[in-house]
Task: inverse folding
């Protein structure tokens, strides 16, 4: 029993070490991958633009729920005008980065992992190696960078739409005063809050993209292997994002 | 065949995968300018041998020299330079599925050269013409049949004008016509481009019609080598079994198993 737990712990640490080494390998190839800018742009489109609909829809609904719950809670203290502040802080610092990262792992992360896994299974990566093209530089790094660039942008859009959703419910439906909704938000959300959100979404972007390309690149080249890699991408990303979120929140306090 | 005319020399190669020894003490010379065939029953490590020759896998012991350089001593960058002189046709073609046939063939040129678009177009169309698929340039890989896919992969393999061309099971799963086309291409490309070709296959009759030298692998060793005619007239049991396609012989029909009757009579739980 304890031996199993211990083995599990050791295995997780070994895997963590592997992932960090993979990250260093990616970073070492970044200078050689950057000149092929079009490849990165394509991947920003794949990871970012193609995730826009799900991010915007989710942002709207999360914002609307926040508006409703926030209004109910704040009404008890007679301070409904603070709804703008509450929604904005909640979205920019927490919900924006975290929910975007979870959705990103589900939408873009799985696509990345299964694409790379299938490229491995169909010998496309080996064929590139045989053509003297490093698949890390040509395929993996652009996808990784695409995810890293797209994630903070998606989180920003999520927060923006979320605030609009909160406004929709709070101001349009619950008749919170529009002027105080916006002016309180502007007065009390400061740069530090926004910075926290930006840092979080950048860190989550690196984590989710890294996990996805790692799982895909090292997937067992079979149907089950690629399926398992895709599942692990979502599960690992979710746990890692929530764990990092706690660490970062504690750090910014 | 003397040593100086060998472009690939393998000496005392030892290699094990997942704890199973695949090659114990393998030595082969592949003569330059010829079509060499590596044959053998499934599971004798033919594909593994190709992976070792191309540096995709590393030998546990022994040396592999390709065009004069020992693979074990090469850095990653030097290995990539050497691979620039090799072309390889994978079993399933391994075309990049997200780009067209034309872009697949152009891929190595775009990665390794800064040629103007007009020249790339000319080179790609010449290579596609050589495999008879110039008309398919704008198709996507998913729209090709198995045989066509392999011909496109062949065009891609020769686009950088390699010195060594390696074919992994080029006939597997092809209809007789596509097979004939690939056979003719192997011979024609070898002679027209002055290549050295290495073909891994177990299609005895097809390979006999095209190869200059045949190596028969079994149990991790070369059990026979020579021209196809020599192999056909060989007295060796294993060669006769393989060439004649006999179900049983030195290569047993049965995978090693415990006693048959004992297994049939055993009750559940017994072994």
Result:
């Amino acid at each position: 029993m304890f031996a199993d737990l211990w083995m599990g712990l050791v295995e997780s640490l070994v895997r963590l070490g592997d992932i960090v080494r993979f990250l260093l390998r990616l970073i070492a190839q970044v200078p050689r991958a950057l000149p092929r800018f079009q490849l990165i742009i394509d991947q920003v489109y794949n990871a970012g633009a193609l995730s826009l609909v799900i991010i915007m829809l989710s942002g709207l609904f999360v914002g609307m729920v926040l508006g409703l719950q926030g209004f109910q809670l704040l009404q008890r203290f007679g301070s409904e005008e603070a709804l703008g502040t509450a929604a904005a802080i909640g979205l920019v610092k927490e919900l924006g980065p975290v929910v975007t990262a979870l959705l990103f792992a589900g939408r873009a992360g799985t696509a990345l992992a299964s694409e790379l896994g299938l490229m491995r299974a169909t010998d496309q990566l080996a064929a590139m190696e045989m053509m003297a093209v490093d698949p890390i530089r040509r395929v993996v790094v652009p996808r990784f960078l695409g995810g890293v660039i797209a994630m903070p942008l998606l989180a920003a859009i999520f927060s923006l739409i979320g605030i609009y959703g909160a406004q929709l419910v709070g101001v349009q439906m619950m008749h919170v005063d529009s002027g105080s909704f916006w002016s309180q938000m502007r007065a009390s959300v400061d740069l530090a809050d926004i910075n926290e959100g930006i840092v979080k979404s950048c860190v989550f972007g690196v984590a989710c993209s890294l996990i996805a390309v790692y799982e895909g690149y090292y997937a067992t080249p079979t149907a089950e292997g690629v399926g398992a890699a895709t599942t692990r991408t979502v599960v690992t990303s979710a746990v890692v994002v929530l764990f990092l979120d706690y660490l970062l929140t504690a750090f910014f306090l | 065949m003397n040593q100086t005319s060998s472009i690939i020399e393998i000496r005392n190669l030892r290699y094990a995968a997942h704890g199973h020894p695949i090659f114990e003490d393998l030595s082969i010379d592949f003569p330059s300018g010829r079509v060499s065939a590596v044959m053998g029953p499934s599971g004798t490590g033919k594909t593994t041998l190709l992976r070792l020759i191309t540096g995709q896998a590393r030998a546990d012991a022994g040396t592999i020299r390709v065009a004069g350089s020992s693979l074990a001593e090469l850095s990653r960058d030097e290995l990539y330079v050497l691979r620039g002189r090799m072309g390889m046709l994978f079993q399933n073609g391994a075309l990049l599925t997200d780009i067209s046939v034309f872009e697949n063939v152009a891929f190595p040129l775009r990665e390794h050269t800064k040629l103007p678009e007009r020249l790339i177009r000319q080179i790609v169309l010449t290579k596609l013409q050589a495999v008879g698929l110039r008309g398919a340039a704008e198709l996507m890989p998913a729209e090709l049949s198995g045989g066509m896919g392999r011909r496109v992969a062949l065009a891609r393999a020769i686009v950088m004008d390699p010195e060594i061309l390696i074919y992994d099971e080029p006939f597997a799963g092809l209809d007789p016509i596509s097979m004939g086309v690939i056979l003719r291409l192997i011979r024609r490309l070898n002679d027209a481009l002055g290549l050295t070709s290495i073909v891994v296959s177990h299609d005895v009759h097809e390979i006999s019609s095209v190869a200059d030298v045949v190596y028969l692998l079994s149990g991790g060793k070369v059990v026979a080598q020579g021209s196809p005619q020599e192999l056909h007239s060989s007295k060796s049991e294993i060669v006769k079994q393989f060439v004649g396609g006999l179900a049983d012989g030195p290569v047993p029909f049965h995978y090693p198993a415990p006693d048959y009757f004992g297994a049939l009579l055993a009750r559940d739980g017994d072994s």
Chain A touches chain B at residues 122-124, 126-134, 138 (CB under 8 Å). Residues 38-252 of chain A form one domain. Chain A is about 85% helix and 0% strand.
